[in-house]
Amino acid sequence: MSRPPTAAQRRVIEAADPVTGRLRGTEFQLAALVKQGLAFRHPRPPHDHFLTPAGHRVRDAVPQLPEAPAEPVADSGVFAARVGGEEEPPGSGPARLREVHSAWQGLLELRRMTSADGAVDRPCGWERAHLVRAAALALEAAGHRPAGGDADGYRVRATPQPEAVAVYAPDARTLAACAVTLERAGWQAGEYSEPRTGVRYLLASPRRV
């Protein structure tokens, strides 16, 4: 990238799909982002444009509210993975199932496009930059139920450790099932106990190889 993106280019970057990084804009805008190294044109039809890792970094550098798992999810119309414990979780039912399936398929496509060998069995850069949301999406896409209201389910939380999240579940069986799901989705998961409370949880991190 030779120079910072213009205000117009930044607006295009900020409007990119939150999961796949797919861009929408004029041919001139998209070509300029490609020249800047912030986007690439997919070689297959319909030849859509997507953010490169550098483009994702530019978008992620835009000031945002800190990721707080227990906060309500704003009704912005943008898909948000359920991390468990939301006071106002996204809707449920067939519509939500379709949204989750679409988001997961988009994430697999992002893995394929950004991996040198086209593999989809390892988390991509977006997932490493959004650990809590990425782990939650993997769990929800596999059919696990997130905690919310009076319902028990998984909760995904950030940890002080780099590239690691904590996953809590209401019982040992559910915790073990979450571990299997994350490992199938390309994560490493180990079970630990909190020193003071003895509560069991998973410490999960994206696998690199």
Notes on the protein architecture:
It is built from seven helices and seven strands, in the order αβαββααααββαββ. It is an alpha+beta fold and about 210 residues long. The protein has two domains: about 1-65, Arc Repressor Mutant, subunit A (Orthogonal Bundle), CATH 1.10.10; about 70-209, no CATH class. The strands form two sheets. The protein has a four-stranded antiparallel β-sheet, with helices on one face. About 30% of the residues are buried.
Nutshell version of this structure?
With 209 residues, this protein is of the alpha+beta class.
Please write out the topology.
Layout: H1 7-14, E1 22-23, H2 27-36, E2 39-41, E3 49-51, H3 53-60, H4 94-114, H5 125-129, H6 131-141, E4 155-158, E5 165-168, H7 172-184, E6 187-193, E7 200-206
Antiparallel strand pairs: 1-3, 2-3, 4-5, 5-7, 6-7
Helix pairs in contact: 4-6
* SSE pattern: HEHEEHHHHEEHEE
Low-confidence stretches: 62-77
Task: Characterize the biggest β-sheet.
Answer: 4 strands, antiparallel
The tally of helices reads 7
Q: Calculate the terminal CA-CA distance, rounded to whole Å.
A: 28 Å
Beta-strand content: 5-15%
Number of strands: 7
Average pLDDT level = 83
- Outline: elongated
